[in-house]
Amino acid sequence: MALLNFLGAIQQVTGSCYLIESRDGAKVLLDCGMRQGRREEEDGNRSAFAFDPGSLDAVVISHAHIDHTGLLPKLTAAGYRGPIYATDASCELMELMLLDAAFIQEKDAEWENKWRARLGKAPISPLYRIADAEQALSQRRALVYGETREVAKGVQVTFHDAGHILGSAIVELDVQDHHLTRRLVFSGDLGNTCSPLMHDPAILSRADLVLLESTYGDRDHRCSSDTLDELAEILQQAHRDGGNVLIPSFAVGRTQDLIYYLGRFYQQGRLPQQAVFLDSPMAIRANAIYSRFQNQFAAEDRAALQAKGVKRIEDWLPILRCTPSPEDSMAINRIKSGAIIIAGSGMCTGGRIVHHFKHNLWRSDCHLIFPGFQAKGTLGRSIVDGAQSVKVLHQRIAVKAQIHTLGGFSAHAGQSQLIDWVSHFEHHPELYLVHGELEKMQALQQALRERLNWIANIPEPGEQIAL
């Protein structure tokens, strides 16, 4: 029978990777993501692949986020030369994200080798280089939603809108197995139905096996209107306190949502700050891609943008100032009050947000807003969990800022949304939970049993099952 191998994002959120092997010898890799978070997990990115990259027939990508695509350059460096299938919008976003990831890999290795040389230690090589990312990008093959394509002998793929970020897909794989066809459906990252700009996740009804993400398997998100009211009040309080507002944000997806919400506040007269800085070169470039794909936005939000004549995302928020250069970024730090600063990275593991922490985190009039999930082992998670001080740029900084966590802004479905989505499948397919910390998977597993009387399996890393 055809086999499914669980290779990544198993009992953890990041590192999405699954291998499908048909009896006829076809091998298709579903996602090739980077592990993020704790050091021991990130060290796993350097481990050899659990398969021969050169033996793969195709790679299928659910969406462009690095925890789903970040090891593609390593895969091509190891010899893979076949096609990499993704939606048209994901193909554009992948270029942005993989080139940036490769640049960071090279710079991190360069920096580390300087101190290794001083200690007489052997130099290290980057995980991959820009040339490897360019090779991976040359192998992209774009598909549109609803298009069915045979990607390997006896294996057909169809993408459906997942509503998570631009181009995100639910992946439907039909695998022929001796005159029988087995259908695997991977939810990818399912979108929160309250998120702006994106459609609700597509509803599917037939599958033999479903891989269901469980990032927020233990809880539901707050009502979006309540979350927006809370955000508005935080911004008003920050204005009264006289400090800046820091918002760590993922460059793709979360940033565009924030710009949309802040633009709505501005037009309603609910935004007291006089300047919003977008301090992320990647997010600035992602905005341009989002602007080109406005035809894929949800109808209501697309109509709102068109009514204002908005052709670029930035035009929705007139006080938005983009700071692409390092000099522009450093100039923000001269502003001690009245600014909203949106910067990467979303979990504070690097990027420009850490520089703004250095100048603001120790100030009691600063407000720090986390609009999304913070994985275990990240700087963001330490702050959310109540750390009194954190190490930032090799310095220990007191955490005196007022901390806010707004789960309602998550681009992931909450527990009830996950259960509702999977309940539409007929004939109770075999169900496996992926993309979640173990305790969140167990909470979702129990809820599925109580609400649907369905048994959900939690696979072990490296486990192999018959499809």
Q: How is the topology of this model organized?
A:
Blueprint: E1 3-8, E2 17-21, E3 27-30, H1 39-43, E4 58-60, H2 66-69, H3 72-77, E5 84-87, H4 88-118, H5 130-138, E6 140-143, E7 148-152, E8 155-161, E9 169-177, E10 180-186, E11 209-213, H6 224-241, E12 245-248, H7 254-268, E13 275-279, H8 281-292, H9 299-307, E14 320-322, H10 326-332, E15 339-343, H11 353-360, E16 367-370, H12 379-384, E17 389-392, E18 395-398, E19 402-405, H13 415-423, E20 430-434, H14 438-452, E21 456-457, E22 464-466
Parallel strand pairs: 3-4, 4-5, 5-6, 10-11, 11-20, 12-15, 12-16, 13-14, 13-15, 16-19, 20-21
Antiparallel strand pairs: 1-2, 1-22, 2-3, 7-8, 8-9, 9-10, 17-18
Helix pairs in contact: 4-5, 4-8
CATH homologous superfamily assignment of the largest domain = Ribonuclease Z/Hydroxyacylglutathione hydrolase-like
Give the tally of structural domains.
Answer: 2
Give the CATH topology of the largest domain. Answer: Metallo-beta-lactamase, Chain A
Mean pLDDT: 94
Please state the structural category. Answer: alpha/beta
Helix percentage range: 25-40%
Radius of gyration: 22 Å
CATH class of the largest domain: Alpha Beta
Strand order of the largest sheet: 6-5-4-3-2-1-22
| Largest sheet composition | 7 strands, mixed
Span between termini = 7 Å
Q: What fraction of the residues are assigned to beta strands by DSSP? A: 15-25%
The CATH architecture classification of the largest domain is: 4-Layer Sandwich
Shape: globular
What is the helix tally? 14
- The number of distinct β-strands equals 22
Which regions contain 5 or more consecutive residues with pLDDT less than 50?
none
